[in-house]
Amino acid sequence: MMKYIILFLGIVFFSCQQKDKVAERIIAKLLKEQQDCWNEGDIKCFMKHYWKSDSLKFITKDGITYGWENTLKRYQKKYSDKALMGELQFDILSIEPFSDKAVMVIGKWQLYREAGDIGGHFTLIWKRVNGRWVITSDHTS
Fold first, then answer.
1. Contact yes or no for 124/138 (Cβ under 8 A)
2. What's the confidence (pLDDT) of residue 59?
3. Distance in angstroms between the alpha carbons of the first and the last residue of the chain
4. How far apart are CA 12 and CA 114, in angstroms?
5. pLDDT of the residue at 49
6. CA angle 45, 46, 47 (to 5 degrees)
7. CA 62/CA 120 separation, integer angstroms
8. In this model, does residue 13 exceed pLDDT 60?
9. What phi, psi does 35 have (nearest 5°)?
10. Hey, which bits of the chain come out as E strands?
């Protein structure tokens, strides 16, 4: 009997690990899409993986911006042309699943641009909302 319990627990554990790996691959792909959108100068495309909700939180040293529309406007104001946007590079440091519906991503970002290179770190909370992975909270420094 104990052999079957151990086998069952092993199958459950393996199944959970596989789900985590699928979520990690999906989110890594979505971050690559975001990077590509940014590098094409398309902020609206970049924003498509953010939660289109007034509950979205974008946190920086300047404070918290609430909502998808306000976050879009903030990006458009701060990066008003391709020269200010530069070339974005993400470096994912870790992807940590909280559950099958929530994942935390920690990474580094770098903008290479004529106006001067800038960069920092980010913590993203991704959640499955209506079957899609979306960023519900972005803390960027």
1. yes
2. 98
3. 53
4. 52
5. 97
6. 90
7. 14
8. no
9. -60, -45
10. 57-60, 63-66, 87-99, 102-112, 118-129, 132-140
